[in-house]
Amino acid sequence: MWGRKAKLSTAVLAAGSLLGLSACGGGDAGSTEPDAWVLNGGVWTVVEEDFEAWNEENPEQTFTVESFANDIYKERIRTAVGSGEAPTLIVGWTGGGLLEYVEGDYVTDITEPTADLRERLIDSVVANGEVDGATYAVPMNNVQPVMMYYNQELFDEAGIEVPTDWDEMLEAVEVFQDKGVHPFSLAGGSLWPMLMWASYLTDRIGGPEAFEAVVAGEPDAWSHPAIIEAMERIQELVEAGAFDPGFASVVADNNEDAHLVADGLSAMVLQGSWVYSRLLEESPEFMESGNLGVTTFPSIPGGEGDPNSIVGNPANFWSVSANATEEEQQAGIDYLSEWLFNDDYVDGMLETGNIPPLTGLEDKIAETEDPEFLDFAYGMVTEAPNFQLSWDQAVDPSQERALLENLGQVFDGSLTPEEFAENMNATQPTD
Predict the structure, then answer these.
(1) What is the enclosing helix (H) or strand (E) of 37?
(2) CA–CA separation, 315 vs 141, rounded Å?
(3) How many H helices and E strands in the chain?
(4) What are φ and ψ of residue 131, in 5° steps?
(5) Pick from 94, 51, 65, 177: which is nearest to 393 by CA?
(6) Which pairing describes strands 35-39 and 64-68: parallel, antiparallel, or unpaired?
(7) Which residue from 218, 250, 289 is spatially nearest to 7, judged by alpha carbons?
(8) Residue (of 336, 421, 242) closest to 50 by Cα position
(9) Which key words tag this protein in UniProt (predicted)?
(10) What is the pLDDT of residue 70?
(11) 350 vs 370: CA distance, rounded Å
């Protein structure tokens, strides 16, 4: 049944060096060829195909495109931007990273040329690309809410229902432990998937205000009772054996956490909507079995947060490098204003299980081969009273590494919740 939880049917179908990477665009003063760096896998295949189509139609403004794994990209783009060697079009997650780009004059104001594009997009998503009323980034791919994926066959064999609240989740952990199945997989080696647990728990317990105080830079904001309780509940889950005991060696770049669910080794995984399209590519037999289900994050009894609120990434965003040549910048602006979210691009995204941040998609979704997942995810976004940007992207960039490392220590039990808060309070930027 689709709604708060859903069972899926068959689908057809993030400070290193450049390490010798050439800068063919952006900051290369001798180049007039625009370039773009993208990530690999899932929807990014559609993005690369879109650039191929653009290049065929616009031989005077052809883009060179390079793809990277998520974590490698996050390391390289910061170095490239800071050194003036960024690609013409910069993929970002907005939040504190975009604010840093704007304050450093690394990206251009694209308010006027993208006005028509922004009229077609979901307002709550578009707003993430604005700084002080001006637009410096526009969404360029799918909305990315975080949801809970599960293996329905394992639940059937265990004779239990998919959990909808905290107590039911703890019960499911106990049942799967007894059956020798990992209740949850977790890509702890990548660290950032741990943020999904921290952010959802904080929001469910204390509502959006708890983390908004962190983003606003309020003193001791990390000591909010909701954040402390979220860390306590994380450690309760770890102690209960909720996660694969080898989670510290599992990485997300290769979709390893989701594959544990597809392979029947773990019952559930908390991950972004991008996992669906990756599974279509990489685990076709499991997807054809109809055993993949999705649901929202469980509610917390007595919590102040709305159970319909979501966390994740409203989308990835394109910004135009201020260090690109005038010709490169114009090509980037033309691509965004004249080409982005064309019909073929939108159809390609939907066909691969990804939802563009466009308004009025209901009819297009209904016409897809397997609309259930798309309809579920689209409903999550359009009905959410709050869409919390991923913590590592929302905080000041100077805090990201400390956040990931300290949260990792909460998960491994070497830090108490209070020590986590104390350490993070010490990282709050001061004016």
Answers:
(1) strand 35-39
(2) 6
(3) 20, 14
(4) -135, 120
(5) 94
(6) parallel
(7) 289
(8) 336
(9) Signal
(10) 87
(11) 10
**What 3-state DSSP class applies to 402?**
helix
Q: Answer whether 266's CB lies under 8 Å from 203's CB.
A: no
| Nearby residues of 378 by Cβ (< 8 Å), 6 or more positions away | 143, 355, 361, 362, 365
Helix residue spans in 269-425 (DSSP H): 274-282, 284-289, 326-338, 343-351, 362-366, 371-383, 391-394, 400-411, 417-425
pLDDT tens per residue across span 81-127? 999 999 999 999 998 899 999 999 999 999 999 999 999 999 889 98
Pairing outcome for strands 292-295 and 64-68: unpaired
User: What CATH number has the domain spanning 35-143+314-359?
Assistant: 3.40.190.10
**Shortest CA distance to 271 belongs to which of 192, 153, 201?**
192
**147-311+389-425 shares the fold of 35-143+314-359:** yes
What residues contact residue 142 under an 8 Å CB cut-off, 6+ apart?
Answer: 43, 273, 274, 315, 349, 354, 355, 356, 357
Residue with tokens 């204390």: 206
> CA 63 → CA 56, 89, 296, 323, 423, distances in Å?
10, 10, 39, 16, 44
Question: Strand pairing partners for 135?
Answer: 130
Pure H helices in 58-165: 70-82, 95-103, 115-119, 123-126, 152-158
β-strand partners of 146: 272
pLDDT in tens, 202-235: 999 999 999 999 998 899 999 999 999 999 999 9
Q: Where are the domains of the chain?
A: 35-143+314-359, 147-311+389-425
Torsion of CA 303, 306, 308, 312, to 10 degrees: -80
Instruction: Quote the pTM value.
Output: 0.81
Q: Domain 147-311+389-425 falls in which CATH fold? A: D-Maltodextrin-Binding Protein; domain 2 (3.40.190)
Give the SS3 label for residue 65: strand
